[in-house]
C-alpha cells in the first residue's frame, strides 16, 4: 500500500505565507520563497497518523505541485519535520515550466509512477486538500480530503476527568 500525500495544506501548514496568493494578482514567487517554505509547520494530526501508517509498513509518496526548484528546501523540511523517511525518488514535484492544472499534473505523475512499479496492482491511499486533484486521482484508489481526514484516520481519544 502506498500513501500518496499532497504537501501544501495537507501536511504543511502554509497559513503564514497564504496571503501572497489570496490577492490578485497572486504572487507565486513570494508564496514559494524558500525562506518562507522552510518555516511551514506540520498540520495538526499529521505526525500521529504518518507514524502509525509507517508502523504498518506503508510506503509514502509525496506528490506536490511545487516546482523542482524547491526540491532541496522541501526535502530538508520533510526530514526536519516528519518522523518518517521519504526517499528523494518518492518526492514527485512539478517540472519547471509545467503549466498543467494540479489535477492533470498529479494524475500524469501518479500514472507514470505506477507504470514503473513491479506490482502494477499496488493500491493507493491518496490524501490531498484540492478537491479537483482528488477527482483526478480517484482511479488510483481511495482519496481522502485533507486536513479534515487526519482526525478521522487516527482520532485523539477523549480524556474523561476522573470522578473525585
Which geometry do the CA atoms define? globular
Structural class: alpha/beta
Distance between the termini: 47 Å
- Work out the radius of gyration: 17 Å
What share of the residues does DSSP label as strand, in percent?
A: 15-25%
- What is the CATH first-level class name? Alpha Beta
Which runs of at least 5 residues are low in confidence (pLDDT < 50)?
A: none
Largest sheet: 5 strands, parallel
Write out the strand line-up for the largest beta sheet, numbering strands in chain order. 5-4-1-6-7
Plain-language structure description:
This protein has 164 residues and is of the alpha/beta class. It has a single domain (2-13, 41-153), classed as 3-Layer(aba) Sandwich (Rossmann fold). The chain is built from seven helices and seven strands, in the order ββααβαβαβαβαβα. It has helices spanning 28-31, 34-37, 46-55, 71-81, 102-115, 131-137, 149-153; strands spanning 2-5, 12-13, 41-42, 59-67, 91-94, 124-128, 141-145. The strands form two sheets. The protein has a five-stranded parallel β-sheet, with helices on one face. A two-stranded antiparallel ribbon has the order 2-3. α6 links the parallel β6 and β7 (141-145). α5 (102-115) runs parallel beside α6 (131-137). The chain is globular. The mean pLDDT is 90.
Amino acid at each position: 500500500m502506498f500513501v500518496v500525500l499532497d504537501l501544501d495544506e495537507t501536511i504543511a501548514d502554509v497559513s503564514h505565507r497564504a496571503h501572497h496568493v489570496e490577492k490578485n494578482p497572486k504572487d507565486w514567487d513570494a508564496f514559494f520563497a524558500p525562506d518562507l517554505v522552510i518555516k511551514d509547520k506540520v498540520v495538526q494530526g499529521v505526525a500521529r497518523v504518518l507514524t502509525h501508517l509507517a508502523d504498518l509498513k506503508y510506503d509514502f509518496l509525496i506528490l506536490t505541485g511545487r516546482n523542482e526548484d524547491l526540491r532541496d528546501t522541501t526535502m530538508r523540511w520533510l526530514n526536519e519535520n516528519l518522523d518518517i523517511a521519504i526517499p528523494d525518488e518518492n518526492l514527485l514535484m512539478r517540472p519547471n515550466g509545467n503549466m498543467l492544472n494540479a489535477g492533470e499534473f498529479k494524475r500524469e505523475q501518479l500514472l507514470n509512477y505506477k507504470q514503473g512499479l513491479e506490482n502494477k496492482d499496488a493500491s493507493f491511499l491518496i490524501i490531498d486538500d484540492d478537491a479537483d486533484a482528488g477527482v483526478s486521482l480517484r482511479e488510483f484508489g481511495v482519496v481522502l480530503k485533507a486536513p479534515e481526514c487526519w482526525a478521522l484516520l487516527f482520532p485523539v481519544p477523549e480524556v474523561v476527568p476522573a470522578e473525585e
